[in-house]
Amino acid sequence: MSKYRYVMRVALTVAMGGFLMGFDASVISGVVKFIEPQFDLSKIELGWAVSSLTLTATLAMMVSGPLSDRIGRRKVLFLAAILYAISAIGSALAPSFTMLVIARMIGGFGVGASLIIAPMYIAEIAPPSARGQMVSFNQLNIVVGISAAYFTNYLILQFGQSDAGWAQSLALGEHNWRWMLGLETLPALIYFVGLFFVPESPRWLMLQGEEATARQILNQAVGEAEAESEMTEIRASLAKDANKQKASVRELFVPAMRLVLIIGVVIGVIQQITGINSVFFYAPMIFEQSGIGTDASFMQAVLVGLINLVFTIVAIIFIDRIGRKPLLNIGLSGIALSMFLLAFGFYSATYTLTGEAIADLPAEVNTEAVSQLEGTTFDGDVAFKEAVRGAIGEDLATEYESTFINAAISMNPWLVLIGVLAFVASFAISLGPVMWVLFSELFPNRIRGIAISFVGLINSAVSFGVQFIFPWELATLGSGTTFLIYGLFAAAGLVFVLMVLPETKGRSLEELETLLVKNPA
User: Fold this and answer.
1) Would you say 309 and 280 are in contact if contact means Cβ atoms under 8 Å apart?
2) Least CB-packed of 87, 290, 364, 508 within 10 Å?
3) Per-residue pLDDT, 518
């Protein structure tokens, strides 16, 4: 691996877009608790605050691939860095819910661009023997960003409650969620500067006829002998496509592309519909449903980030050793089992308010109104929350939801913690890094930008839907049913991988094109 030191440095720099994506997406997990009462949001509005970033990320995925084919991968990444910085500053200073959503949506364009282009760029510069690991750097940085967001959210929450003079002068308590969102400005600026030290993709340069420049970059990346071999393969691929018209979306639907398109779409859907962004974006909310309280829920969210990081590193170690398919088999099995465990944990919970618990409620709560619920046992979280709303009203019930659950719930919170951590570990070792590696490998050189944009668009659209309806699901269907649905989708995904997915490790991009696209149109 030492001979690839240059390309590893470049890949890590480009993959910092993943850090920003992870931070930007997950920092909202600590914000939702505070913006819901401040802006008087409904559950649908709360879902919109979280998912609006993913909506514009979805739109960005429609254009970022083709745009990178036109102006280059590097320029699109520069644009993403700028959008991240604008979004962070705008979100931190937002005077209203509408302005917060607009700022988040601006960041979404950066998320969509970097999520598509970073793994594509790395796949195009990395040697085949290490491509899985290097493309996985992007996923590694995503989870580092997620962990950083959880950790900084927790620190800001703790410092905001302290008596330290510097914390009070910065108004960390009063403006905690604004600081959570604004911190992203610093890594966005670092990413922007770092991109000046990254070359353009050699495969894109050859598409533009700049063979001499491409050769220089590949010589640095993989050595002269391997560079010449790769350039010969790229020339052959370009020669085969020389008489074809400019790549278009229609080419994705020709018979020769059926297998790779089905694989790309199904893997893209399964990655999100199993609930990963519900956990990442709402982690404190999920833990609060088990009755552990706000501070503990933020601390357990930090643990989620750490587990995610550790098992992503495990995946990077093994992805080029045992292959993509075995990791997906292991991970999807774990996701299904952990979601079923979460469903069991919440289905077995009961909710009973005792007289002592009612007396300990905050002074703002009308304990006389709540006393009508004393001694009544509810078998589900939905029924209990409805009863509380009926007793004290929607606003107070929303503001003190965690307090009421903590006071009434009877369940083993370890089931929730173990289930969530097992789910995150299973995802991190499989669908997290493997999906983007597969996306960067499956599609032919000529239409790779369009193809990855298309499947990325579907992936992001599903992610938007999952995030948007999650607060509504918890309020309407309950925690147990929500996690059961995710588990059933994971089981279906496992069947698909076992029956359909081929192994792609260790093959050049041009070799995979010959193998998977047998009768190019």
Assistant:
1) no
2) 364
3) 60
* Cβ count within 10 A of residue 171: 12
- DSSP reduced 3-state for 475: helix
Ranges 53-57, 126-130, 375-379, 483-487: which has the least confidence: 126-130
Same domain, 43 and 108: yes
CA distance 20 to 185: 9
Do residue 396 and residue 447 come from a single domain? no
336-361 per-position pLDDT tens digit: 999 999 999 888 888 888 888 888 88
Those residues with Cβ within 8 angstroms of residue 247's Cβ, 6 or more apart along the chain or in another chain: 69, 446, 447, 449, 450
Task: Determine the Cα–Cα distance for residues 30 and 241; give it in Å rounded to an integer.
Answer: 49
Which residue, among 173, 57, 156, 159, has the nearest Cα to 115 in the 3D structure? 57
* Residues 369 and 447 placed together within one structural domain of the fold: no
Same domain, 405 and 435: no
Question: What's the CATH number where 141 sits?
Answer: 1.20.1250.20
Phi, psi torsion values for 172, nearest 5 degrees:
-65, -30
H helix intervals, 371-516: 381-392, 394-399, 401-408, 413-428, 431-442, 448-476, 479-500, 509-516
For the chain, percent of residues with pLDDT exceeding 90: 22
Q: At what angle do helices 16-26 and 276-289 cross, to 10 degrees?
A: 40
Domain extent, residue 110, equals 2-198+244-287+431-502
Please report, for residues 12, 152, 305, 482, the alpha-carbon distance to residue 471 in angstroms, rounded to integers and kept in the order given.
Answer: 35, 23, 21, 10
**In angstroms, rounded to a whole number, what is the distance separating the alpha carbons of residues 236 and 214?**
15
Task: Tell whether 275 and 145 lie within a shared domain.
Answer: yes
Six token digits for residue 265:
């779409």
Q: Are 110 and 83 in contact (CB under 8 A)?
A: yes
Distance of CA 99 to the CA centre of its chain: 23
Do 399 and 479 lie in one domain? The reply is no
pLDDT of residue 484: 95
68-77, 314-323, 399-408, 452-461 — most confident range = 68-77
Whole-Å CA distances, 503 to 90, 315, 437, 460: 44, 16, 12, 24
Burial of 520 per CB tally in 10 Å (0-12, 13-18, 19+): middle
- Contacts by residues 207-216 (CB-CB < 8 Å, ≥ 24 positions apart): 207/69, 207/238, 207/445
Domain count, the chain: 2
Q: Is the same domain home to 91 and 179?
A: yes
pLDDT tens digits, one per residue of 135-191: 778 778 887 888 888 888 888 888 888 877 887 888 888 888 899 999 999 999 999
If asked whether residues 440 and 392 sit together in one domain, one would say: no
